[in-house]
Structures are given as C-alpha cells and as structure tokens.
Amino acid sequence: MPEFLLKINTNEIIDRVRRVYLEESQSFHNSVSLEAVMQILYTNIQRARYERTILEMASAYAGYTFYIPAFLDFRGRIYRSGILHFHERDLARSLILFDAKEFINNSQFVLAPHVIQEMLYYYRAAGGFHYKSFSTNPIDSANMFFTDVEKCVIEEVGDIQKDSCREDGFCYDSAIVITSAKAKNPFQWMMFLWGIFNKSEDSNFICGVPITQDASASAYQIMAYLLLNEPMAKRTNLITNSEKPDSIADVYSVIMDDLKSFLNKEDLPDSVKELYNEYIDRKLVKSIFMPIIYGKTEMSTAGNIKAALKPYFYPAYKESAVLASLCFKFLREYYKEMDHLIRLIRLIGWFASTCDSNVVYDTQFFSTCQDFLVKDSHIIWVYDKIRKKKRMVTLRLSSDKRDRKKTEVSTFMNFIHQKDALIAMKVVLNMQGLNAPIYTVH
C-alpha cells in the first residue's frame, strides 16, 4: 500500500471523499455506492498500517533467533492470533528466515559444491512457484522459469554494479520489483529473486529460506483415503498418476469440467447453459465445493454464487439459486461415495445430540469435545450516551438445550479439520526427527 495512507487524517479524508462522491454524476452513483467506496478506503488504510507494523517489527527483530508459538483451537488447527501468524500473508512470510546454522552443523552431508548447486536448483524452483503455478514437470519448469527471469534482470540492468544505480535511480532492486507486478506472491517472489543475486554463496541464507508447500485439497485427500477412492486420490495428488507421473493434478479443474458436462445434460434453456459455461471457472468452483463439504447450505451457496457473478451480470438472483441447487445435485450424483460419507458422519453427531450427549473426537495427541447449545434471545435495556435515551439490545445466550442441527452440520467439518491437524502434527514430528526447521499453518 502507498505510504501516504499512513499519514492521512482519517476524519478529514472521509469528509473529502464524501464531498467528491456527491459531486459526481448520477450514473457514477448508480454504479458504485458511497458505502462501497468508504469500505475500500478503510480496508486500504488498515492494510497500510498492518504492513508498516510488520516491517517495523521485522526491523526490530532482525538478526535475532526466536521461537514463534502456534495457538491451537479445539480441533487442533492453528488459528490466527495477533500479527505473528502466516495464514496466506505474503509480506510476513517473505521476511521469515530459519536459523539454519544448527541444521548445517548437525547435517549428515557436507555442503560440497555439487550439494550447494542442487540446493540452488530447488531454491529457484521454489521461487518460481511464487510467481505462478506449474502443472507439467513442475520442478524443472519452475527452475527454468526462475532462471530465465534471472537472465532478463541481468540484461535489463546491464553493467550496473549490485551496490550502485544509474543516474535515473534504476538498479538491481528496481528490476526485481518490476518483475513482481504479475507474481502470485509478489513479496516472496522478490525475496527469492533478491536472495539469488545477493546471497547465493551464503549457505546459511539458502538453507534458511522457507520453502512453502500448500495442501492439495486436503479435505478431498482425506475422504479419498477413507473411501479407498483411487481416482480421487490421483486427482488430489495423494498418489501418483501413472499416466502423468510428472504432472500436478488439480481436483477443482476436474470438478469444473465434470460440472459443466453435468449442466449441459440438464433440462435448461440454451442461453442459461451458455451463461454457466462462460462464467463458471476454477475460482468459482472452489468457492462452491470447498464450503459445501464443510456444511454450507444451498441458500448460503446461492448467495456466494450471486456475489461472484455480480460483476458480470446483475442481479443474477434466479441464475444463482438454480446453479446452487444443481451443484448440490451434481455432488450427490457424480460423487456419491463422498456424499454418503459426509451424511454418515453428520448422522453420528445428530445421534449423539439426540441422546443428549456431546460429540468426542479422539486422536493420539489430543481429544476434541463438541457441544453446541441452542442460543436463547434475552432483551435488555441500555442507556445510549450519544442519543441520550434508553434503547433495547438483544443478547443471544447459550441455553441448556443441545443444538441438534448445528451439531449435525458441524460434525463432519470438525472431523475433517481434526484429521487435517493430526496429519500436520505428524509431519512436524517427522521433520524434527530429521533435525529440519519447519513452521506449519493449518
């Protein structure tokens, strides 16, 4: 975010934005509301302040070695706590380095030249994935892409030394920033590229740069494992596809293709089919089918679809509701085994709640007790100092009665989340056995 957002007076800028908005034409007012403009302003100001805080904290901690604790929720998953968390936070992740000295000293291998070259190979490949995704021969492709960008930067800067700039201020750092314009994770991409130009001979730095690995649709992986579903296991990269051993599968792309094929067979007007085929993409499919397995209702799904399709056509009420209904029907028909597993585990939660009992999940590391209670409404009166009069406030407090519906819907979600957390914990244990540094976000 621009630095000037840190210095503006919030009250003054709000009044100025309001005046500018009111001076615009009616057509502008019809296309965007004042509330939406204000929301964007607040979001950008908050993001600028967060980024400044992260940078100041990184500067204060530079050179120190410390342990970052993980805070677990009742399912064992790491939740967001304060600013020291790394859930999809590109800036914070780009500033983290492991202390690799102990790992290097205790390693069973010697950092010979060929070992360092192999490490740089994987370093470049990991950096390439921060720019974009690679599906075919992913490691080789990512390494080649990163190497090509390296060469482009060198050609761009010409004879400029690493610690100097041209008369117009252009330098190595400028070239690196320019390459990040279209990167998937721009800050981490810049960190990897900066490291190759400035720290490629520093084994402590190369060994200390975290290599990020995201789960490949972990909920679908777990269901594929429990159901011994080989096709789904291949689609989620749980096992290697012998037909495409060097490719990374994308389950949501497969679901998207299956969904479009399913919709084309449905009794729908041709115009609606064309509409769905044009606007249904991987992003929309993921936003639909990831929440569905966690208990999202048809009505709530329709709301999400409407919000996703709103930029393309408006108001999309009917189309969104029809598509949501068809998505649930598609899941029941094309992925029957998974739908049956979800319903079965939910029924266990419903049965426990009906028997006036909580739902307990046990693992070798911890136990989870799920006990949702119905919330009753309680009305109280408070004195409003601004309006200088009493007003009514409704509080929702837990009762002694168990909430069967919420228990049923949440049982499968918490079951999958706990299995996911257990897998992550075992990965950490294995990494500790190798004396390798790791942080996990799940």
TrEMBL record:
Its EC number is 2.7.7.6. Residues 182-442 form the DNA-directed RNA polymerase C-terminal domain. One of its GO terms (biological process) is mitochondrial transcription. Signal peptide: none annotated. GO terms for cellular component: mitochondrial DNA-directed RNA polymerase complex. The keyword Transcription applies. It holds the Pfam family RNA_pol. One of its GO terms (molecular function) is DNA binding. Keywords: DNA-directed RNA polymerase, Nucleotidyltransferase, Transcription, Transferase. Gene3D superfamilies: 5' to 3' exonuclease, C-terminal subdomain. It catalyses: RNA(n) + a ribonucleoside 5'-triphosphate = RNA(n+1) + diphosphate. PANTHER family: DNA-DIRECTED RNA POLYMERASE, MITOCHONDRIAL (PTHR10102), DNA-DIRECTED RNA POLYMERASE-RELATED (PTHR10102:SF8). Belongs to the phage and mitochondrial RNA polymerase family. DNA-dependent RNA polymerase catalyzes the transcription of DNA into RNA using the four ribonucleoside triphosphates as substrates. This is DNA-directed RNA polymerase. It comes from Chenopodium quinoa.
